[in-house]
Amino acid sequence: MRLKDKVSIITGAGSGMGRVAALRFAAEGSRVIVADSQGEAAEETVRQIRAAGGESYAARVDVSVEADAKAMVDVAMRRYGQVDVLYNNAGIMPEADHSVVDTPVEAWDQVMAVNVRGVYLGCKYAIPHMIERHCGSIINVSSFVAILGCSVPQDAYTASKGAVLALTRSLAVQFAPRGIRTNAILPGPVETPLLMDWLLKDEAAKKLRLARNPTGRFGKADEIVNLAVYLASDESAWTNGASMVIDGGISVNYF
After folding, report:
1. 180-187 sheet: strands from edge to edge
2. In angstroms, rounded to a whole number, what is the distance separating the alpha carbons of residues 8 and 124?
């Protein structure tokens, strides 16, 4: 088991890639705090983990709210006495997010609150406990759109993921001397409910995105989680400040 004896907090773990991550981390031996804004969804993930013989606990959390973020970390400390991994997976991509010229301010602020403030708050309360034990791994989910522009814009989402990438680098420099590694995963389009629900409504957008991917398909959640397991494990002891792109080749394709 690659994560034996570790305690992991995974945000947005009630569905999609977060649930896949929670199940996989538990299967690899980690005790998992399943954090999600939807309490019933979090409990269902926990149920699945426990049914498979794992150890887990649910925390209903709005990652953009400071009290919730603190409570999430407090739950991990109260139940398991340590935090080894903070997997900042929670994120939103609302339909109202388009170009800066037509995205409502409310949608912009909502995206920034969840996608950026949520990462900041999780780190704010988890890092001090990691410092105490001189070890820890922070895994931030950014996006391939943080490193290249898109002709079909979602500017709030793009800006938020660029901010996550910049924050990752800053944390990597600040806290590596204290035993804490911080890395970012930059996925391309992945078959999650969040993305598929949107693309199924817009066949033209789906075809456009697939045409630009050399592999001709979207990614699978477990393909992203495979990298997260590596980053959470001691195998990645010298991996710090990395921006790891998993996109099927979109970001290297010019035509």
Report:
1. 56-60, 31-36, 7-11, 85-88, 136-141, 180-187, 243-246
2. 16
Active-site entry in 57, 157, 230, 254: 157
In a domain, 252, yes or no: no
* Site of tokens 């088991």: 1
Q: What is the SS3 assignment for 34?
A: strand
pLDDT at 203 exceeding the cut of 80: no
Residue 178 belongs to domain with CATH number: 3.40.50.720
The answer to the question of residue 251 being in a domain is no
181 close to 125: Cβ distance less than 8 angstroms: no
Q: Which amino acid, residue 160?
A: S
| Residues facing residue 182 across a β-bridge | 138
Q: How far apart, in whole angstroms, are the C-alpha atoms of residue 154 and residue 98?
A: 4
Confidence of residue 164 (pLDDT cuts 50, 70, 90): very high
In this prediction, residues 79-105 reach a mean pLDDT of: 97
- Chain position carrying tokens 């991917």: 213
Q: Is 247 contained in some domain?
A: no
For residue 30, tell me if it sits in a domain: yes
Q: What is the mean pLDDT of the chain?
A: 95
Residue 169 clears pLDDT 70, i.e. is over it: yes
Note down the domain range covering 38. 7-237
Give the count of domains, the chain. Answer: 1
Comparing CA positions, the residue from 147, 11, 168 lying closest to residue 91 is 11
Does 157 participate in catalysis according to the annotation? yes
Which residues of 98-198 form beta strands (DSSP E)? Answer: 136-141, 180-187
